[in-house]
Design a protein that fits this description.
The chain is mainly alpha-helical. Helix content is 67%, strand content 5%.
C-alpha cells in the first residue's frame, strides 16, 4: 500500500499544519512581549497593553522560574524565552506523535528501522 494515498495522511498533515500555525502565533506574540519589555515600552499604550494581556496567560506558568534582569526601565525577561522554548518542544512532540499515526509500507518501515540501528 502506498502510504501517500492512505486515508490517514491528509488528517495528519492538517493536524501538523494546525500545530505549527498555532506555535507560530504563540511565538510571534511572545517575541513581541520580549522585545517590548526589553525596549521598555509604555505599558499604557494600546498595542503594548494588548500584547501583555494576551501573553500574560502564555507566560504565566514560567514567570517564577527566573528573575528579571532590569536596567533603566528595560526588562530582559528570561521567562519569556523559556516559554518560547517549552512551547516549541511541546508542539514538536505533538507533531511527532501525529506522525506516528501515519501509514507506512513494510519496506519503508524496514528502511527506517535499519537507519535507526546505525
Amino acid at each position: 500500500m502506498d502510504s501517500s494515498n492512505s486515508p490517514s495522511t491528509k488528517p495528519i498533515y492538517r493536524g501538523t499544519q494546525i500545530a505549527w500555525y498555532l506555535l507560530y502565533c504563540v511565538e510571534v506574540l511572545l517575541a513581541m512581549r520580549f522585545v517590548l519589555k526589553l525596549l521598555g515600552a509604555n505599558s499604557q499604550a494600546g498595542l503594548v497593553s494588548f500584547v501583555y494581556a494576551i501573553t500574560s496567560v502564555l507566560a504565566a506558568p514560567f514567570l517564577s522560574v527566573f528573575g528579571k534582569t532590569e536596567v533603566l526601565g528595560s526588562v530582559f525577561e528570561w521567562t519569556t524565552l523559556l516559554a518560547m522554548l517549552i512551547y516549541w518542544i511541546i508542539v514538536l512532540s505533538i507533531v511527532k506523535l501525529l506522525l506516528i499515526g501515519k501509514t507506512v509500507s513494510t519496506p519503508e518501515a524496514a528502511a527506517k528501522l535499519d537507519k535507526e540501528d546505525k
